[in-house]
Amino acid sequence: MERVKLEFPAEAIIHRHPLTVRVTDMNYGRHLGHDALVSLLHEARIQAFAALDLVEWDMHGYPSLVADLAVQYQSEARWPDALVIETAVPEPNGKALTVYQRIMHRDGERVVATARVNQLLIDQVAGQPVAVPEQVLKVLAQARGA
């Protein structure tokens, strides 16, 4: 079986978001469901950008869209586990913002999942991706401590 294998770039962390698994996040296997996990990742990504005064629907004039998502599941989480989602955004290469996220138990001993999202910023008139605006690059570089 081919598996997704992601390397989380810890040097590019821009935000840490604590949360608790809710009972509504559980699936019939009595652990965190994949659909809920994607929603938690989205919430943490929005919070990470908001902490930098960036919003996905208006990144200095351009809305973003998710081009793809990869998730590597590594362990289970259950209600009411305390978790933290770390968000890392390395220096963009091309037009995409590549956002990595790592969901961990808050004690830091077990990784639940690692994910990668490629986001494109779109010129709504032309319907085409644009280069990441310089101001967005600057804010992300400052958050990374670069």
From TrEMBL:
Gene3D superfamilies named among the record's database cross-references: Hotdog Thioesterase
The keyword Hydrolase is assigned to this record: yes
Pfam families documented for this protein: 4HBT_2 (PF13279)
Residue stretches spanning the membrane: none
Keyword annotations of the record: Hydrolase
Keyword Cytoplasm: no
InterPro entries: 4-hydroxybenzoyl-CoA_TE, HotDog_dom_sf
GO molecular function: fatty acyl-CoA hydrolase activity
Family statement: Belongs to the 4-hydroxybenzoyl-CoA thioesterase family.
Protein name: Thioesterase
